[in-house]
Every structure is written in C-alpha cells, then in structure tokens.
Amino acid sequence: MEHFGLARFAIWLVFLVPGSFATTNSQQGGYHLIKKYTLGGGEFGRDYFDYLTLDVSARRLYLTHNTRVNVIDADSGTVLGDISNLHYVHGVALVKELDRGFISEGGADQVTIFDLKTLQVIGQVKTGGSPDCIIYDPASRHIFTFNARSKDATVIEPANGTVVATLPIGGHPEQAVADGNGMIYDNDEDGNEVVVIDSRALTIKARWPVAPAITPTAMTMDREHRRLFVGGRNKLFAIMDADNGKVIQTLPIGGGVDSNIYEPETGLVFSSTREGTLHVFHEDSPDKFTVVETVFTQPGAKTMALDTKTHNLFLDTADFGPPPPPSSGTGPPMTVWTIVPGTFVLLVYGR
Questions:
Q1: What is the mean pLDDT of residues 260-279?
Q2: At CA 54, angle to CA 126 and CA 70, rounded to 5?
Q3: First-to-last C-alpha distance (Å) of the chain
Q4: pTM of the full predicted structure?
Q5: All structural domains of the chain
Q6: Are the CB atoms for 173 and 187 separated by under 8 Å?
C-alpha cells in the first residue's frame, strides 16, 4: 500500500472538528487503547509497515516491517522472533495445513516461504513486479499475490512453491479477499473497480465500479450475507453486493484508508486510516449499516488485525519526523514519511 503525505496530517489536525463523525449505536462502541508495545525499528530513517496477520490459535501476530517480519506473542506483546534480510515487505499469508508462511517482498519481486514452527526461510518464488497484498484461497488451495508494478496477480502452488498462472488485473491491484467458495475480489485502484476472479478457473469473471467511492484500497467481506466492504481514498466506505456488484450504501471515513475488517459475531465492521481514525460501523441488516463510533488512534495506524478470541484490534505505527525537502528531479515532488528511530509501536484496542 502507498505512502501518504505527512503534511496532510497537519492540515487534518488543524481543521478536525470533534464530533464530526456521528455516533448512532453507542452500545456497540467504547473502543479504546488498552495496551501499547514499543518494538523499536526505524533504523533506516525511512521505514515502512503494512499488513498485520494474526494466527489466532497459535497466538502469533506477524507484523511486516520494511526488511523484516516481526513475530509477536498476541497476549503479552513479547517478540518471539524475526524473519529478516527481506526487501520492502508487505504481507504474510499462512497455510496452516502445510506449516508454511508466505511473505510478499515488494522490493525483490518475490514471495519468501518460511516454516511456521521455526520461522526459518525455506524458499523463494518469483512473482510479478512489486507484490503487495498476499492471500491464501482455501477453495483453490493457492496463494495469490497482487502485484502493484506489473498490475497483475501471481498464483502459487503452496506445496511446491511453483507459479501456476499470472492473471492481468488491468490496473494497480490493492487489498483482496476470498469468499471461501472459489471467488476472489480485488480492488483495482486505477480502474476504480472491484475485479472478480474465479480462483479455480483462474479467469476474470466481472469488473464492478465502486462509485461514488474512488481509489479503492481496503477490502473485507461478510461471507454469510455476501457483502463486500470497500474503503475508498476519497473518504468513502462502500458496501457492495458480492453477487451483482451493486453499491448498496456509502459512509464517510477519514483520509488514507488502508484496512477493513468484518467481525461476524458482533456484526461490526472496522476501517482504519493513515490519519489515525478507526471507524466502527454496525450491520443492522445486510442492506443497512450505521455508524457506531470513530476512535482517534495515532497517525499512521493504517492497517490492523482482529483477534476473534478477545475481540481486540491490533494496529501498528510509529512517530514521524518532518519530511525531507523534495528531490530536484524532473518528476513531481514526493513526500515520504521519516520515521523517528525506535518508535515503531503495536497498539491494542478493545472495549
């Protein structure tokens, strides 16, 4: 997922009006910071952290962190180990029946395979350019990476680490979700659409516009009621029918959305943004969603994982210094985040 200008934080903080997001279902709310673990990091000045992956049964939390994956005890925050010497890592997918994990390395155009018990690297697989989101699809039993630079998806057989197919997405792919029955839904940022993939036939079945949401990035799903939840970078959260692509409802969110999570047990939907807003919605019915609350976390806390055992949410971020001056190149100036060394943190939110 992409960088977000630090200057926008300052603008947002100045003009933020308390209560600008209504709370209409307070009995489901009350999320607050319950734990904060400092993990260090930021040793390279410019750092990056992306998807969080939780193995609920093993109580292991995997945090992607620039050149490494931090493995954390989900209950104590203790660092259990690191998988290091990686290249601009984005996500981790777990295949428990094989005792293997798969890491998307955006800076190396590859997936690194590791042993879930020992955390030792056991192989690499070449992918398309700059793999970002990575998921395991239980229906086809394949790993899918969604590659930002080559604008395609690489399909991997996890048992032997071979590439099965490459699927053209058409635009910049972002977060994807599998329904468990053979369909994968992926956000196409460039096309402002959801791309529907038949994971067994390895074909594109449909392309659905997400308007009025624009630049879709975050994605999760209510599999029982067949609803997709899409976060757009124009500060709109869209609810879409997973069978016909109809946008049923939209709700306002903060800037720089990067992660959505649905909790079937409570009917709650969570959306986190780079601005540091955690939005909580409730599924009153498959066609009606209401705002529960908006919690202000910490700038940069853009991705998260849900612990279905405790119902807590994990988010990570760091403190940011002033951006460096724009480069003197011929292209448009870019604002990058400069991490204050030693400030990478894991935040735990609960009720």
A1: 97
A2: 65
A3: 28
A4: 0.89
A5: 20-47+213-321+336-351 (2.130.10.10), 86-209 (2.130.10.10)
A6: yes
